[in-house]
Design a protein that fits this description.
4-stranded antiparallel beta sheet, 4 helices, disordered C terminus
Length: 249
C-alpha cells in the first residue's frame, strides 16, 4: 500500500511539474507576443511623430512664404502627407493602443477640424491682400456700425469660413480698442457681418484678423448719423449729418 501511495504521489508530482513547465512556456510565449505587438506599435508611433513633425515643417514653410505661388507649389505635398497619416498610420481595428487612450471615437472629427482650421490660417497668411474683402459698410443711428466682408482663399475665390478663426477690432481716435462681433449671414454662406458699438466721434480704424494676421483694414469717420442709405452690395453709400441743420449724401 505504501509503495502504491508513493508511486501515485510521484506520478502526480511529475504531472504537476510538467504542467508547471508548460504553463510557464505558454505564459512566456504570450508575453513575448504582447511585447512584440507593443514594440511594433511603438515603432508606428515613432514614425507617426516623425511624419507629423515633417508636416509641421512643411506648414511652417508655407506660413513664411511671401506669395500664393509658393503655397500652390507646396499644397500637394501637404495633402499627400495628410493622406499618408490618415491611410498609412491610423489602424482601422487597433489592438493594444486603446488601453493607453490613444484612440478615441471623436479623434477623426477633431483631426479634420484642426486640418480645416489650419488650412484657413495658411491661406490667409500666404496672401493676406486677398483673404478678406470689405464689400459694404453701414452706419446706424444708434451709434453702431456694420461692415460686411467676404472671406476668400489665396486665389481670391469666396469661401465659407468658420468665423471663430476670425476676429475684428476698431481703434478710436483716443487709441482705445473696441472688440467687434462677427456673424455669418444666413442667406449667403460667404458673407460675414462685422458689427460694433462706436459712441465716440472722429476717425476710426477697423482691422480684421485671421489668426494673428491682419487681412483687411479700413479707416472711417464717425459723425452723428441721422440717415442711412445703402446701394447694391459693394457700392456702399454713407449718409451722414455734419451738424444738426445740414445733411450730406
Amino acid at each position: 500500500v505504501a509503495e502504491n501511495i508513493d508511486s501515485t504521489f510521484e506520478s502526480l508530482m511529475k504531472v504537476l511539474e510538467k504542467n508547471k513547465i508548460e504553463l510557464k512556456t505558454e505564459l512566456q510565449k504570450v508575453a513575448k507576443t504582447k511585447l512584440e505587438i507593443l514594440e511594433e506599435q511603438t515603432t508606428g508611433l515613432v514614425a507617426l511623430k516623425k511624419q507629423m513633425e515633417d508636416a509641421e515643417d512643411v506648414s511652417d514653410c508655407v506660413l513664411v512664404s511671401p506669395n500664393s505661388v509658393a503655397f500652390m507649389q507646396t499644397e500637394r505635398a501637404i495633402i499627400k502627407r495628410l493622406d499618408k497619416l490618415a491611410t498609412g498610420v491610423y489602424e482601422a481595428s487597433p489592438r493594444e493602443l486603446p488601453t493607453f487612450g490613444f484612440y478615441d471615437d471623436s479623434l477623426e472629427s477633431k483631426f479634420e477640424q484642426v486640418v480645416a482650421h489650419s488650412a484657413q490660417i495658411w491661406s490667409s497668411s500666404i496672401s493676406p491682400g486677398k483673404s478678406v474683402t470689405i464689400v459694404d459698410e453701414t452706419y446706424w443711428e444708434d451709434d453702431s456700425v456694420r461692415f460686411t466682408v467676404i472671406p476668400q482663399d489665396y486665389r481670391g475665390i469666396p469661401i465659407k469660413i468658420d468665423s471663430a478663426v476670425m476676429r475684428a477690432t476698431i481703434k478710436d481716435p483716443k487709441g482705445n480698442t473696441i472688440s467687434c462681433v462677427l456673424t455669418p449671414r444666413q442667406d449667403d454662406y460667404s458673407l460675414i457681418d462685422v458689427t460694433a458699438d462706436v459712441s465716440g466721434l472722429g476717425r476710426h480704424l477697423l482691422s480684421v484678423y485671421m489668426g494673428e494676421t491682419i487681412v483687411a483694414s479700413a479707416e472711417f469717420d464717425r459723425t452723428r448719423v441721422y440717415l442711412r442709405s445703402t446701394l447694391p452690395l459693394g457700392q456702399a453709400q454713407k449718409v451722414i449729418s455734419l451738424d444738426l441743420d445740414e445733411t450730406d449724401a
